[in-house]
Amino acid sequence: MSEALVQRDIPDAPAPGESYLTAGTGLASWLLTTDHKRIALLYMAAITFFFFLGGAGAVAMRIELFTPQADLLSDDAYNRAFTFHGVLMVWFFLLPSIPNILGNFLLPLMIGAQDLAFPRLNLLSWYIFITAGGLAIYTLLAGGVDTGWTFYTPLSTAFANGHVLAAAAAVFIAGFSTIATAVNFIATVHLLRAPGMTWFRLPLFVWAIYATSIVMVLATPVLAMVLLLIFAERAFGIPIFDPLRGGDPILFQHLFWFYSHPAVYIMVLPSFGVISELIACYARRRVFGYSFMVYAILWIALVGFLVWGHHMFVSGQSMLANLAFSFLSFVVAVPSAIKVFNWTATLYRGQIIFDAPMIYALGFVGLFTIGGLTGLFLASIPVDVHVTDTYFVVAHFHYIMVGGAVSALYGGLAFWWPKITGRLYPEGWARFAAVMMFFGFSFTFFPMFVMGFLGMPRRYHVYVPEFQVWHVLASSGAVVLAAAYLLPMGYFAWSLVWGKRATANPWEATGLEWQTASPPPAENFATPPVVTQAPYDYHPEHSGPPAIERAAQRPQGHQP
């Protein structure tokens, strides 16, 4: 793949200096755009829709669980509700949210490129994603699925009711969008970096997106294969997982979790990149141990492929396999601990500014640390056997995947919103929403650790009355959390009309994305940047942009 081939795929740009938002205002100009920034906004609209639609399933479950009896949903309806919630939230929100929204918008800007390597492939990936999402919504309208988001066999192949094949097809199609986006990101980082942008001058957000893209390319085909095997057995009766005919249902778990545990890092690694950018900016310090942070990101991406068996301690594995996977699960926690330590060291003696993005970042560190520490409990075989299939597991993965990833997404949106839209939002409301999200999340999910340890099984909507107090706490916290999720939608929308106009660099940050106008021109940079220093050039006597050179003088009157 040559650089010439990459450049030929970039369409002609609009008039120099014209904002990407005003470079064509008709609906067709958006639906046929190849501008990575506009495609990021298309993803934002779609992913936000799926987020709140999947959240509606969670609302139904929390209302049902307010009392010990089945007051709202039948057994079958409850199964379909949590399946739909899981499918939408995992594959149509958590996995694509930060890479497809913030990654799409920021990656070329952060490395000084005009666009992604393959703009037309980028647009195609959005259409594939929309097609998959439409098929997922069809499964809800047609009656839903009752297998759970994991599609475990033999339930999904022989006993499940509903549109299993349609739901599996939706996830299968979404995988093509994931792979296309990942290939585009990898090619862009390799081929389109600005002069002087060496590998160890890349921002940590770029490293995180790059490592995530590698995981996407390597892991997603495994999910595609296992979904095809479900289709083969359910549609054509081929005995792949049916033990009565020589199949092996445990084989499904091995294949599914070989994909799904690395998929956790598809959700979390981009969050690490976002949080690194926020903490460095609002502590006004270089990221402590930059090279260690890079190696920790790559370590997580590699070792994450070796720990899938800790999901199967009670599935009939040999004790030797259980011990090996337990050890590796402790090992993969080391780079995550390095990142938390380095963030803390970056904050130490920093000139900390408690704006909304920083509050989101600190909330992320707290929630992720709780999720990571409880992950060590689940890596321990005796504890895992005790809490398997209880609410302890539900709380753990929500702390990691939802508490962590959503806090990072909202923090990233707050940080880069002036760059995306050219407008400033009301800071007071944003701080309030950030604090509310942390406490609302904790009130929702921390009680689940207690009830899970006491033996409350997950996926049950009828339970003994002793657990009601914990469910009432969780459901009450969910109301606060829902308000925290909705509030930013209000003040972001308000800012589009009444918000003050943002300067090119309102936070005095150091990344290349802040060295162009807000919002950026269609071609990203009026003149190509040349990088001369390492990232995060913050120090007490100079909090401004890094030392970069321009290939030519800026046009007169151009906003830097």
User: Under the CATH scheme, which class?
Assistant: Mainly Alpha
The CATH H-level superfamily is Cytochrome c oxidase-like, subunit I domain
The average pLDDT score comes to 90
- The end-to-end distance, rounded to whole angstroms, is 34 Å
Order of helices and strands: HHHHHHHHHHHHHHHHHEE
| Number of helices in the DSSP assignment | 17
Beta strands, count: 2
Strand order of the largest sheet: 1-2
CATH topology: Cytochrome C Oxidase, Chain A
CATH architecture: Up-down Bundle
Low-confidence stretches: 1-13, 541-560
Structural class: mainly alpha
Binned strand content? under 5%
Number of domains: 1
**What is the helix fraction of residues, given as a range?**
55-70%
Radius of gyration: 23 Å
- Largest β sheet strand count, sense and barrel closure: 2 strands, antiparallel
Task: Label the overall shape.
Answer: globular
Region (Disordered): 518-560
GO molecular function: cytochrome-c oxidase activity; heme binding
Membrane topology: Multi-pass membrane protein
GO cellular component, one term: membrane
Task: Give descriptors for this structure.
1% strand; disordered C terminus; 560 residues; disordered N terminus; Cytochrome C Oxidase, Chain A; mainly alpha; membrane
